[in-house]
Design goal:
The protein is α/β, with parallel strands linked by helices and about 240 residues long. The chain folds into 2 domains: about 40 residues, no CATH class; about 190 residues, Peptidoglycan recognition protein-like (Lysozyme-like), CATH 3.40.80. Helix content is about 35%, strand content about 10%. A 6-stranded mixed sheet has the order 1-4-3-5-2-6, sandwiched between helices. The longest helix has 18 residues. The chain binds zinc ion. The site of zinc ion has 4 residues, from loops. Zinc ion binds next to loops.
Length: about 240
């Protein structure tokens, strides 16, 4: 956080009703923005995530990451997805259903869905782990985009505008550099990838591979430049499980 305006940022964060206390620590130095000022409009559409689902998430975390917790603390990665559907309600229903995936509970979810018209829906609090990407859920915020292909999402101006604003706000709020804004398909090569089940270590989906995310990150850099937000280091890829 910028020291000179720390008090102002705190006040603005409360006014904005972000749902959690303002992030502590350091936002990259820049005098021209506040974290709260970057926050796009967000529609709160919670899926059921009560004690039972939290306990399922904690057990999942223990099995796959070695930590028995449902809490998402200090997230380091933002993951972009597309829903492979055409309505936000369809995706919301899938995530709300809490149906087993790969034979395990809890069901899949994402923190946000960005609709075709650019409406941003938030489904889950940012302090809760959501199951959206194997190997990453212990540290990643998930953003779903309604659509059936990377190109469909990249070609939708309203949806892209909202997505980039949302991602930039999350980057500033949680001090996440642009190199850790990744597509679901790219998570195979993220230095943060962690998966204790050998048979799951190379599991990944096809959404948002490198070519699509290169476009996405270029647009994100452009927006960040216009808003005076430093983006930090670009991607550094690894392949720790030899996938
Ligand atoms: Zn995905």
């Amino acid at each position: 956080m910028i020291r000179a305006v720390a008090g102002l940022v705190a006040v603005l964060s409360l006014v904005a009703g972000a749902g959690t206390p303002p992030a502590s620590g350091m936002v990259p130095d820049a005098a021209s923005f506040t974290v709260a000022g970057l926050r796009p409009p967000i529609v709160w559409k919670p899926i059921p995530f009560g004690a039972r689902r939290k306990s399922e998430m904690a057990a999942y975390s223990k099995r796959h990451y070695g930590q028995h917790t449902w809490r998402l603390q200090d997230p380091k990665v933002i993951i972009e997805h597309y829903t492979d559907g055409t309505t936000w309600q369809g995706a919301w229903n899938t995530f709300a259903a809490n149906s087993p995936h790969n034979g395990e509970l809890p069901g899949t979810c994402a923190h946000f869905i960005v609709g075709r018209d650019g409406t941003i829906y938030q489904l889950v609090h940012l302090w809760i782990r959501c199951r959206h990407a194997v190997g990453m859920n212990y540290t990643a915020i998930g953003i779903e985009h309604v659509g059936t292909s990377d190109q469909m999402v990249l070609g939708d101006a309203a949806q892209m505008h909202s997505s980039l604003r949302l991602t930039l706000w999350l980057m500033a709020r949680f001090h996440i550099n642009i190199g850790n804004v990744v597509g679901h398909n790219e998570t195979l090569y993220s230095p943060y990838r962690l998966e204790l089940y050998p048979s799951w270590q190379c599991l990944v989906h096809a959404d948002f591979p490198h070519w699509a995310m290169r476009k996405y990150r270029t647009r994100l850099r452009d927006l960040a430049g216009r808003r005076g937000v430093p983006v930090g280091k670009g991607p550094v890829w690894t392949n720790k499980y030899g996938c």
